[in-house]
Amino acid sequence: MTFYLSMEKAYSNLKFYKKELILGPLFKMLEVVFxxxxxxxxxxxxxxxxxxxxxxxxxxAIYIPGLIILGLCVLGFFSTLVCQYFASVASQGFGTxxxxxxxxxxxxxxxxxxxxxxxxxxxxxxxxxxxxxQVSVAMMVRLVLRAPSIVIxxxxxxxxxxxxxAFIFLGVVVLIAIIxxxxxxxxxxQVLKVQHTLDDIVETTSDSLNGTRVIRAFNxxxxxxxxxxxxxxxxxxxxxxxxxxxxxxxxLTYLVINAAIxxxxxxxxxxxxxxxxxxxxxxxxLISYLTxxxxxxxxxxxxxxxxxxxxxxxxxxxxLLSLESHxxxxxxxxxxxxxxxxxxxxxxxxxFRYRDAKNSTLLNINFEINKGETIGxxxxxxxxxxxxxxxxxxxxxxxxxxxxYKGKDISEYNFRELRNEISIVNQKPVLLAGTISENxxxxxxxxxxxxxxxxxxxxxxxxxxxxxxxxxxxxxEEGGLNFSGGQRQRLAIARSLVNANEILVLDDSSxxxxxxxxxxxxxxxxxxxxxxKIIISQRVSSLRNADKIIVMYHGxxxxxxxxxxxxxxxxxxxxxxxxxxxxx
Length: 584
Ligand SMILES: Nc1ncnc2c1ncn2[C@@H]1O[C@H](COP(=O)(O)OP(=O)(O)O)[C@@H](O)[C@H]1O
Ligand SMILES: [Mg+2]
Fold this sequence. Notes:
This protein is an alpha/beta fold. The chain has 19 helices and twelve strands. The chain has two domains: 316 residues, ABC transporter transmembrane region fold, CATH 1.20.1560.10; 241 residues, P-loop containing nucleotide triphosphate hydrolases (Rossmann fold), CATH 3.40.50. The strands form three sheets. The protein has a six-stranded mixed β-sheet with strand order 6-9-10-3-11-12, sandwiched between helices. The chain has a four-stranded antiparallel β-sheet with strand order 2-1-4-5, with helices on one face. Strands 7-8 form a two-stranded antiparallel sheet. It starts with 17 loop residues before the first helix and ends with a helix. Bound molecules: adenosine-5'-diphosphate and magnesium ion (MG). The site of adenosine-5'-diphosphate (ADP) has 11 residues, from α10.
């Protein structure tokens, strides 16, 4: 077997935003140049402009550089706007694409992996993690180049103005860098810890919201609340430490900077500098450069926090994306037509055990199904009926034995196309929020209204659908909650009938239907003689007319035969039948 390993990574989608990722920072650099030029002009105004204005009544040395400053401000404003625009396009676009990639991946995941993640974790990845990655992309465009350039540029300008004083700058930068490095190294672990705890909380919240009904049903609220409180307490303790560390950053940097400003003023008024002739204007500009360095360094420390977080998210997204899904397993579907009455499905000594289960759920299952037949599967809850179908649908892979479909091992088929041939109505059918028509078309987007109506009629769902406002376009609420259980089942059956080509499986799908409706449904299905039907039920009445009935008992086949044969050959079947007729 060959596997397709996804090469998709969290940041892969950046390749679509090359233009923005290059142009954005370039425009930002334009702004940096303007910002660096500003103190120079200010120095000129202070030194030349004020002097000329006072002594010669000539204001040109004030308003000309003043106008240039104004012009630079306007230009800087526009280049910031452009950069912001690119940052926003790149980060939002990237986030959207990543969400789509992840969503597609989630839908393609093997059931086993999806169950292992849980819906909470998946929600968390698609919201929190993607957001963090998105923020990191915006920061890449806006600040990653800017902050270091401001620091370096300001340093260079300081050297140009006065190299002696510039050495104080250099000392300040190195000192702050050291302080920050210490803080960042000690806090990054803390940041990650806090992050994990927060993720855990989000996950618990989302899982509990989904399971509210279950939690209440089992009177387990207190227990759950206690567990939750332990987690939030942990978060509180961790974030306290993390915040204290972060809180130290700013005062420490300001301390160093202000000390440096005092040093500069001291030196510039001292004799050495007085000899080298530093002016008031130069002094002012030096102080503005120092302030710019300060702001840039604070930004750098924030950036590091943002990227530490994004890195944790990247890890998780990468892991999810790296999961191989069997859908991409190689194998072409050679469309093969099987004549009616010929073997279409064969279970050859199939056994199966769930990953964490102790015992096999299915053991040595052998049976054959011919095209066009109606097969009934009966057995108590937990006897393995639904598991059998999950194997047929390739949600799971048999631990032993093979399933043959149209003469070939089912694992060799292309997953998607197999799904097109095998239509399954699950035990708990899921309807999605939208309209009836949208739901019916899930398996066949281009189905015509006539096809939908035909399927609705076959599924005995036509009457209640067409009595609704909007008919085919009537609203379906999330989970189909605006329909009764029996109506949901019939809608799900209709949905499967729309795209049923070869095999139709009804997994306990008529349990909420009354006997009359069910009889009608079975009669309608009989008309579809080209379809092979597998009907799982706990009621003998639902499948007594099947061509073959498979009786399941604790993961094994008890017996196979027609209703009449089984009454004679299977005590188990006879017992089930008799207990049910007695009830009636
Ligand atoms: N995802 C799962 N992980 C582990 N065990 C499972 C899982 N799904 C079902 N089982 C177990 O497999 C057995 C058969 O379940 P199932 O096939 O759903 O039975 P049936 O459809 O006949 O009621 C049960 O004992 C059930 O607990
Ligand atoms: Mg079941």
